[in-house]
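Q: I have 1353 residues here and want to know how they pack in 3D. Can you give me a structure?
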Amino acid sequence: MLELWKSGDLTLREKSHVLQFLINCFQSLEQDFVRDCSLRLTGLQSWFHLNDLHRAKLLSLNKKLPAFWKKVQKKYADPQTLQAKHERNFMAELLDEFLATLEAFGEREDLGAEELSYLERCLELMIDLLDQLPTRRFFRPLLVDKHIVVRCRGSKVAKLPQARLINQLLGILRYYENFEIDDTTGKPLSRREVTDLHYEKLQLLQRVCFSEFPDHQGLKQLCLTNVANLDTRDALVQHFSPLALDVLKVLCAKVCYLDVSKDPTLAAMEQKVKVAIEAQEKAEAEKEAAEGEQKKKKRKKKKVKTEEEVRLCELLVEILVNRLERPVMQQDDVLKMPLYPTEELVWDPNLVPEEHYSGDYSLALPKLNLQFLTIHDYLLRNFNLFRLESTHEIRDDLQDQIPRMKATINEDGRTVFTGKARMALPLVSLEVMNVKRPKVGEEVPSEVRAEVRFNLTGMLPHVRQEWDTLREHDVIFLLRIDAPAEPHEGHVKDLSVSEFPEKFGVMALRGCEVTELLDDEGNVISDPNPAERKTPVGDNRIARVLLDPAQYHQDLAAVADGKKEVYTSLNLIMRRKPKENNFKAILQTIRSLMNNEDTVVPDWLHDLFLGYGDPGAAQYWKLPTALSEVDFRDTFLDEDHILESFPDAEDIDVPEELQRPFRLRFEKAGEAAPGQRAPERVVASAYTLPNMGPYPECKPRENKVRFTPVQVEAIRSGVNPGLTMVVGPPGTGKTDTAVQVVNLLFHNFPDQKIVLVAHSNQALNDLFEKIVALDIPERYLLRLGRGIEELDSKQDFSKWGRVNHMLQRRIDLLAKVEKLAGIFGLSGQDAAYTCENAQHFFLHHVQYRWEEFRKKLGAAGKDGANIHKVLAKTGPAAKKRKGEDGSAVERTAEVGAEDSEEVKKAREQLKSGQRTTVSLLFPFTAFFADAPQPLFPAESYEADLEVAEGCFRYFENMFKEIEECRAFELLRNSRDRGNYLITTHARIIAMTCTHAALTRSTLVNLNFKYDNLIMEESAQILEVETFIPMLLQNAESGVSRLKRVMFIGDHHQLPPVVKNRAFQKYGHLDQSLYARFVRLRTPTVDLNLQGRARPGIAQLYSWRYRDLGNLSNVLTDDRYRHANAGLTYEYQFINVEDFDGRGESQPTPYFYQNLGEAEYAVALFMYMRLMGIPAAKISILSTYNGQKALLRDVVRQRCSWNPIFGEPGKITTVDKFQGQQNDYIIVSLVRTQHVGHLRDVRRLVVTMSRARFGLYVFGRFSLFENCFELTPVFSRMAKLPQQLSLELKEQPGAKRLAGVDGETDPTLVEGIEEMWKLLQEKMKAQFQAAAQTLSAGGAAPSGAVAPAAAPRD
């Protein structure tokens, strides 16, 4: 390929394709072969083309490079092979060719698409080579030597109007060329180090001027100028502009390492200068000769620079200035950037491209790839991409809501809104209330507060409620709409991006963040605590908001320049769905991380995070912190479970008759091979959990899942410090695995906090519901975010729910203390007045009595031989005598104690075995009267003593809980109580990744600390949204506190959702950190047994995974063994031809629908309902939003009104249904002309893996069977009939064994019309059967229904 490039036979278009190929190669360095071939082009051998001075300096900076350079010189000084020549020369020649082509294109008046595409692809390749350390290390010096950015910007091409994208790419290239990193070590440079390097360049300039031009008056002054007066652009231009070309050439050679004579393009320019000068001198000589000798003497000669000389001098001056001017830190620019999009950004197609990007051209976007230069580089790329993606989503919402408001001009010439929108309202007024002064060293105000007024009159109740649920941190948008003279009548989607604001009169757009929402009476109705939230009064609302200070500062500067003031003219307010409107908090979080010196990840994860080093370095067994002994508690069900869980162990020592809980010790059994894990020996032991009390709830809840060996390895890895990557195919129990890890971490490390994160509320709730069922006290659990209302639990685990729970728990516990005090005869002494009083009560009365009890047990003996000695002290006679005249009388009473009735009765009970000494002497029996009786079983002294100790542990735990409630008693407001709950009390905190980004600043300010991070659905979470949960706390002395990171996901299913294809395909914004780690070959634990779907259905997706098998339950359970009632097959592809002469359709662009498939799918749903399958157990999925809407319409028409059928459990898209499942899934593939995005195998895997018992897919079989990517699935589907196969003779609830020949009598349905006919007959037959049964005086048979109306065309 390189030889072909060098041959000169390629056209510009073909060269662009070759460049695209090279770009793809350098983005796929995880492939060994690709990496080996590609990195040869950017190796040290390319330094043969460096300036000698520059190369000598670079070699002197690194001790290892000179020796390596000598080896390279031997091999490449005179390359003998074609490959060696390319490795040495290709990159330098590519840059030279690019510059030559750029110069040649500058001579043309206009450039076509092919010329621009070639230049853009060249710049894109350079950017990709600079943004990865392996290629940057040796390529950047070449780029610096050529001064590509300066020469491109100074070219004639850059000044053309169609070169906007080229200039944007040059901006990115300049950023990476000057990126603050040591190219050799990869160490990020601090601000001080960048400044020191800048000073070195200026000192070099002054030394060169002093040594080379000692008599030059202008340069002599430059030598003595201080840095502050020299390193600005204006000062440098002032010094360099008057210099002659020869002087500039020397300065460039010595300071910028640019030898004009050796650079092909510059040498050509210099030659043109010489020719022009010669031509000028010749013309002047001829002119002088013509004018005569007389005039020649009178005229004073003045040399005039030629146009070519001026251009070359300007270029060399710009090269010097670019190298020597004061560097600008990128994070400083980001700080000044407004976070909310404005009208200019939203409707700029060059910055926010159209949604449908084909990939045929470059874009000025950063890319998320395998490797990043530093964490700052990682954050900045994500910041830019996320900002533009959120802007695209905001644009979609704006273009949906603005047309609905129908802005028109009234009689007074003012804009009024005659329409209505759910998410938008006319703005009554906006008033800026407070502008705080800038912080020291800044220009932007520190805070800008305003009040936004709007009115809810005439709004529907549910819409009014939505407006009233605006909460703190919600973002709203304020617009100025000037209604156009002629309203737009066409469809919005027909307009280009830049046409929309013109057609609908959008003049201004500003964003703001809500802090409070007030009603007519000034009551705050946005309190985050539901218990303290007030009911709104009236229709008027005031939203107190924070404006963007950077944007406000820019707007004031614009007003000073004569532009119109923005804020008083705003007339429309728009809100967005809360789940989709979190961009501002995430951007703010990323920006704060970029400006924080303490933004660090754990040392064991740092190199892998940036994409370098050993991908398995963070595995637990490679770290020195690996645990040699782990308390697995109830993980293993029995001894056999332990033996089968460690198949690779050298030896497993399990003593006989061990009962769980188990503790395992791992011993080294030999030396490890290089890069391999050392063989180990497993030694098991068991222990007994102490009795924690006599009540049923005191018994620990135990695990009942028999974990597979792979799951056990995942659990062990998760408990150990380090990184754990779990690949969880559908139905393999990844949630159960995560829950057990949480259980073990909670009990093994009682001083550590655990943060649980997931992408969706659904996944987080599934995780949390299983954790609630564990042996973990619920008071330590906390669920942050809005999804708590979806949690199917009686308890409220939200922050405010937990605060209220602790307050109620305090009351309940103190009531128990009061009860105990009453039993002791201490009522009315305020033992239960406060938590502090209760602690004193425990010390002086409960613990005292327990200690007395233990003393008496010792005195009485196990058999109670001395029971009279201790009973006498507590008998009524003894107490009375003691009260009258002291201890002497008490001792006298002991003499006759053996003859007392109490002692005699006690001896009889002891002798008969009815009671033991423990039960006779236990002082708290009355308190536990409400526990299961008898309290003491009297089986043995030891058993009763264990019960007694359990009762005292119950007291200890009760008073420990009271002590925990004390903080909630002392703190007087809900906010402080909530903060204490998060930072101190809760030990397991769950939130979505979005909420983590929203609340990070709050958590950091509260000094929140945590030790373990477990992330579910990791493959569905954006890179940066995975990164932020690792940084919810400040580093301690520059070191992260995080000890364990566990990622659970499935990269074979759908990636994070990115709506704009440009950001998805070009910027790789849909890359998750999980998928990137997998690409880097980080070792994973692959769960390999599924227990969700029938084995036949599992085969449709198991081919995508490594050795995915089935758990025993899907082979033996009755519900899996029996076939689906009324259906021949457990899965089937049903071919759907054109319905009414029509296949797929598009009512609007990209809104795909297929009426035939929708009708057929709903008809099958109705048939399944007639067969007795519950509606909630059936879901209908589609691959397109348009079909989802059509399915809902058909269901509404056919089924919703009829209680016999109802509605399916869910009607949604495949993408939205990821992470969920149902017993029966009906799928509509919609497309009949092109395969569409089902070609993505990950979407296919999701589609096939949602069903447990039945999967029925409707589509055009001839289209999908020919798609190569879908072959593994459709080759299996092809073995079954393409007509829906029904068992019409079966009755609802029939039990037919699946897969047994001879038990089926299939009826093949030819199409939707026949399906309607069969449906009618089925309903009629069931109705007749029900009528006969009722007339005979019996009950209607199960599943019998009344007939429904016939389906209408």
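Q: Anything worth noting?
A: The first strand starts at residue 407 and ends at 409. The chain has 52 helices and 28 strands.
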